[in-house]
Amino acid sequence: MSLLEDRYRHVLRLLPASYRAGREEEMVAAFLEGAGGLTDRDNPRPRWSEIASVAALSVRVRLAGTPAVPRYHAWGRAVRLAALLGLFFHATLSCLWFAGFLNTYALRDLLGIDVPGALGTTMPLDAGSAERLLDIVWGFTCLFGLAAFAALTRGRPAAAKVLAVLALLSVCGATLRLLYVLGPFAFETITTHILVFGPPVLALFAGFHRDARPPRRPAWVAALPVAAGLALYAGLSALSVVTDSSVDDTGAWAWPWMDEPGLALLALLAAAAYAATRPRTPGGRDAALPLALALLTLPLAAARSMVFLHLSGPPVLGVTYTVQLGALLLCGVAMLVMAARAMPAREPVQGPEAEVFRP
Q: Which residue ranges does UniProt annotate as crossing the membrane (predicted)?
């Protein structure tokens, strides 16, 4: 065995063993043919493009878009569902943020209407200032999250990927814009936002590959975050009337549930309750939903734990954060157990269902 062939076989270990069993010789031969007759004296190595193609194939095989291998298909459906649920949450918050933006610059600034308790009622910035322009630009970039979810539900994953990245950059950019206000809390805030909104973007890129195109859903599905965002805006505005924004003993129990990780936690717990109580299908329980929720639990728990870096305030605040973190961990374990029980058995890839490799 030549040095180059040995190195190609080492790269191919990225693929599942069942897949390599039927395709390894064919793939090694194709790689060696394209190498141009290099010898061991040349110290040949696989090209980075070849390594990237094998890595991409490994992701496509393990997150299958067809049910030929049920276990890989279950993983693929779970990752795609995690992307869809995460983008739905981001889209809902996009509508929430945009409603607060309209309340500040349309109702309060232009019409002079002040809605008691409504979110986004901070004083508009000075007319003509660069800060005001940045604030208005950010207000409209909030809609990238809604656009990403709409593109995915309408069967356009490529556009959804671009819009999801822009939405994530918009969230992080809003934190950087307030860097002089947040001070030492800026790192904590940016990290929290990345942990909450970043994993669905990664799941979107990994799960929706060329062999797993999303179905085209009705237009009303794309509008669901608008209704959810408006309902959430009304609920949070009403809750802010009865709680103290200074986070004292009278309202400290509520505020940990009203930030992004707190809202994500409530959404995840509701989805987990649905997964645990929904009736079984004729084929048994489906592993995709509990596995998707388990995948989203770990980064959300990390995001919630960030508050303990600079925790201050009344004791009830720390107790509430601890309860939230415990609920997340219990939920994640429960979803993992459900997914493990429903996961299909391992199967080897055989015959024509294995994809033909093209380096």
A: 81-102, 133-152, 159-179, 185-208, 220-241, 261-277, 289-309, 321-340
